[in-house]
Write a structure and sequence with these properties.
The chain has helices spanning 17-43, 63-91. It is mainly alpha-helical. It has a domain at 35-45 and 58-98. α1 (17-43) runs antiparallel to α2 (63-91). Keywords: Membrane, Transmembrane, Transmembrane helix.
Length: 98
Amino acid sequence: MSHLAWPEPETAPHQPWRGVVAGVEALVVVGLGVVAWWLWDRGTPLSSPVEGRPDLLFHGFDGPWVAGAVGAAALAGLVLVDAVRQAVLAVRTRPGAA
């Protein structure tokens, strides 16, 4: 039986092309944020005020639009976490080289 061990990584942790990936993902996060904002705005229309009570304003919630906004915001958060990871991997050096 051979000795089992973790394989040595064949590529260096410092990979500058990951910086480009992080930049593209940052643009995707901004785009998803705009989409989430737009969906939320469409899903929460302001209803007409009650007659005789102009101080009362009601917000209605339209389920599919609000769900889309929450989904877009959640996806933006996940992509943001990966963008940070890619940025760290783009600039990280080996422990012995630092």
